[in-house]
Amino acid sequence: MSSPKANSIVNLVDVDLAVNLGRLRLACPVLVASGTFGYAREMAGLVDLGRLGGILPKTITQNPRPGNPPPRTYETSSGMLNSIGLDNDGIESFITHSLTYLAGLGTKIIVSIAGKSQQEFVDMAARLDGLPGVDALELNISCPNVSGGVDFGTDPAMCEAVVAGVCKACSVPVITKLTPNVTDVARIARAAEAGGCDAISLINTCLGMAINWRRQRSLLGRMMGGLSGPAIKPIALRAVFQAAQSVRIPIVGIGGIATIDDVMDFLVVGATAVQIGTANFYNPTASIQLLDALPAALRELGAASVSQVVGTLIVE
Amino acid sequence: MHTSNPDPICQETVAIEEHVLLARDTYRLRLPCPSIAAKILPGQFLMLRLPGTNDPLLGRPLALYDTYRAASGQPQGVDIVYQAIGRMTRRLAGIKVGDRLEVWGPLGNGFPPTETGHLIMVAGGIGQTPFLALARHYLGLGEYGQPPLVVPRAQRVTLCYGLRTAAFMAGVDDFRRLGVDVSISTDDGSAGHRGTVIELVPPLVDASSCACRIVTCGPEKMLHATSDMAARMGLSCQVSLERPMACGIGICFSCVKKIRDPQGEWDYRRICVEGPIFNAADVEF
Ligand SMILES: Cc1cc2nc3c(=O)[nH]c(=O)nc-3n(C[C@H](O)[C@H](O)[C@H](O)COP(=O)(O)OP(=O)(O)OC[C@H]3O[C@@H](n4cnc5c(N)ncnc54)[C@H](O)[C@@H]3O)c2cc1C
Ligand SMILES: Cc1cc2nc3c(=O)[nH]c(=O)nc-3n(C[C@H](O)[C@H](O)[C@H](O)COP(=O)(O)O)c2cc1C
Ligand code: FES
Predict the structure, then answer these.
(1) Taking the domain B242-278, which CATH number applies?
(2) A310 within some domain
């Protein structure tokens, strides 16, 4: 074990934090996850936004959506369930009210979109393509809170088709965000890769429930919600590992990341970058704290860059 | 949607300075956090979290009870008052002076400066907590905010404080010391009027010689009834809403309530950033 003092000396040696997600180059691998960071403006008073590797604003949809009735969140053991339901003012309002602000933050903005149909995904991608502030798109084909829509995240053929459609309709890098609520995440990951996207991110939340048996009712406004937070980290780590074993494009790890050990775990199993989600809620400066701790952790493995530790898990 | 950057929010880990039992299951915590204390306004709140544990995972919103100051007048920190009822607050009750807590704030909008003759504060149970600082502000006995938020002086301030039973009565002396008139109601008649706190209000309004303004905080049913009563009596009324909150800073969209816009259309609004104080007439109960 090295002493804290020795660590700080080691920190002085430059560690290369830059990573590439296909065509998208990030100054560092710590991003903030969609739906857990608002539209970033809310965090400007707390977080030095320009230092983040990238920001994923809350998912937008073609038309405004009021979202699900409250209660929308319920705390569980080491986690939380949510049924927000993509509450947002729609793509045009996002472009008018948020994009200019986001474009000026000095970090990469990856706009998260969700469509009810393939055509809607394609239309939204085409509308955003080329606008200042749109550095990349993340396709949210994995939100468990929207019923009625087609589930692109669970059917490999539909996944490939929607990714291919979007990639054809726009010139910016595309990331496909996958759900863990499938039997074989590797199959869906391969389908997304075949569709032509630059990278894959996973996981979105795990479908769950919480009820009050005395009142015989759900504790959420909707029957089911998405589980997030430290409770889901082992599931996320497994899913990232499986995806990394099955595709050649870079992976972005998401799920329960709250400590530097979590960040390193994801890199070692094969993630090129990570997104911080629920941790932003209970520690608003978590992303910056993890970024600050990263160089020393990389050095512990003797690495001079992030890429030197990505996917270095020893499989015996 | 915001048009400018929000005020800086401070996040820090603080060592508890005082922890005092005020009434049954009800405690006052003193937190040394000068930078939050310098900025916080009556009606705003803090998020509080127990460090080093994932159970509970999320912070909890707690209203500003009051700031405390050095002899020089410099704000030193904030007092909060809480009732030990659940996962976080029961653990909090066991915490000792010197133990650490994570706090971030100030959060929320606070009470708007409003011309006020007679300020009538209607509290249900632990819902009394936002009113001590508000009373001090409107009585001209304390400054809040940086730069200080100027509010018109009220001629009179009354606290109508409703409780299940007298054992939960907390902080009444703090209010009386400021010159606030305190009227109590209890469900069981163990103190003050037997009945609901709302029944205390109309006689006060009738006897008042100046324009009355109502502010209210407590269980949602009580807020609804108070707001209806204020509407019937043609009085200005603001409510402090409560919702379970995951973040307190506007990023999770969990704390929403139906709020009406000037056209009468409702939309889900985040209580933590657009509230917790709303005009009663705008709330869709
Ligand atoms: C703006 C704001 C200011 C607040 N100020 C104070 C304060 O000054 N003092 C104080 O004691 N509490 C205050 N609260 C409530 C506080 O945040 C906690 O919800 C409460 O203390 C219970 O936390 P817990 O973890 O102990 O209970 P939990 O284990 O989370 O829940 C215990 C029980 O309380 C219910 N509950 C939890 N949160 C709420 C809520 N927000 N509204 C209604 N029911 C709820 C749960 O459904 C459950 O039945 C405030 C809430 C808000 C939104
Ligand atoms: C309250 C809440 C809202 C979310 N909203 C979105 C969203 O709009 N779009 C999306 O792609 N993912 C959304 N997510 C999922 C997160 O981005 C992330 O994938 C998931 O929570 C797992 O990471 P975590 O455990 O670090 O939170 C949301 C999660 C939470 C808790
Ligand atoms: S508590 Fe998260 S948005 Fe209000």
Answers:
(1) 2.10.240
(2) no
Best of B272, B274, B278 for a ligand 3 pocket test (most atoms within 8 Å of beta carbon): B272
CATH class of B118-240: alpha beta
A60/A114 Cα distance (integer angstroms)? 6
The contacts of residue A163 (CB under 8 Å, 6+ apart) are A139, A174, A176, A191, A192, A194, A195, A196, A197
Q: How confident is the model at residue A143 (pLDDT cuts 50, 70, 90)?
A: low
What average pLDDT does this structure show over B181-202?
97
**Mutation site, A56, A61, A73, interface B, largest B CB count within 10 A:** A73
What is the pTM for the complete model shown?
A: 0.95
What is the Å distance from ligand 2's center to A205 Cα? 6
C-alpha span between A274 and A194 (Å, rounded): 22
Model confidence band, residue A14 (pLDDT cutoffs 50, 70, 90): confident
Order of strands, sheet of B75-83, starting from the edge strand that comes earlier in the sequence: B18-23, B26-31, B75-83, B66-69
Strands A30-32 and A136-140: unpaired
For residue B4, the model assigns a pLDDT of 44
Spacing, Cα A226 to ligand 1 middle (Å):
22
Q: Which domain holds residue A29?
A: 4-300
pLDDT digits (tens, 9 = 90+) for A179-209: 999 999 999 999 999 999 999 999 999 999 9
The ligand 1 atom at the shortest distance from the C-alpha of residue A75 is 30
- What's residue A144's pLDDT? 61
Q: Which residues of A touch B59 (CB under 8 A)?
A: 281-282
A131 CA to centre of ligand 2 in angstroms:
25
A170 is catalytic: no
ipTM > 0.90 for the complex: yes
Contact criterion met (CB below 8 Å) for B193 and B200: yes
B249 touches chain A (CB under 8 A): yes
Average pLDDT over residues B95-113: 97
Which of these is catalytic: A28, A143, A167, A170?
A143
Measured distance CA(B246)–CA(A75) in Å, rounded: 8
The answer, yes or no, to whether residue A9 has pLDDT greater than 70, is: no
Here the tokens at position A22 are 């296909």
A294 and A30 in contact (C-beta within 8 Å)? Answer: yes
Question: What distance in Å separates the CA atoms of residue B245 and residue A132, rounded to the nearest whole number?
Answer: 34
Q: Is the fold of B118-240 the same as that of B242-278?
A: no
Distance, in Å, from the CA atom of A88 to the CA atom of A73, rounded to the nearest integer, reads: 17
Give residue B47's pLDDT band: very low, low, confident or very high (50, 70, 90): very high
CB contact under 8 A, A285 and B250: no
